[in-house]
Write a sequence for this structure.
């Protein structure tokens, strides 16, 4: 039951991320920095996908995904369709891993790493959802400002 809810919340947020990317009328606008912000829409999308593919895929799902976090913020001019593919891949990884987590797994300790220390897997699933929605809000703001 809980896994169903998590899958729905993640799917809704990732589908909204794809919708945001699709709403950029000019692909180049994804890569423009809005005054007063640090990241453009394209880099936010790369970060959302990389973050989920790493924390769900590599850490919990043993997918072998190798994260290059610096690239999430430095790469530019990735085609819109490729950005959407990254999000679709992340969605699949998240859903697969969540479907394989039991309630007992959710209580287990999340492996500590260089960015997040301790806590249960369940707490990390919630934290990652909050992180996703935080950056989705930034992406929405960026798109609205750029496409006015």
């Amino acid at each position: 039951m809980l896994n169903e809810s998590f899958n729905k919340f993640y799917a809704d947020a990732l589908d909204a991320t794809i919708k945001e990317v699709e709403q950029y009328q000019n692909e180049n606008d994804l890569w423009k920095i809005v005054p007063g912000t640090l990241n453009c829409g394209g880099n936010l999308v790369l970060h959302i996908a990389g973050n989920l593919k790493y924390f769900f895929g590599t850490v919990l799902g043993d997918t072998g995904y190798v994260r290059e976090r610096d690239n999430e913020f430095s790469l530019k001019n990735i085609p819109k369709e490729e950005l959407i593919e990254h999000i679709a891949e992340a969605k699949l990884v998240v859903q697969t891993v969540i479907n394989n987590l039991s309630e007992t797994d959710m209580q287990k300790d999340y492996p500590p790493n260089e960015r997040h220390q301790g806590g249960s897997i369940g707490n990390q699933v919630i934290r990652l959802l909050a992180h996703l929605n935080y950056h989705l809000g930034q992406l929405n703001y960026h798109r609205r400002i750029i496409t006015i």
The radius of gyration is 15 Å. Residues 121-146 form the longest helix (26 residues). The mean pLDDT is 94. The helical segments are 2-22, 41-60, 69-74, 80-100, 103-107, 121-146.
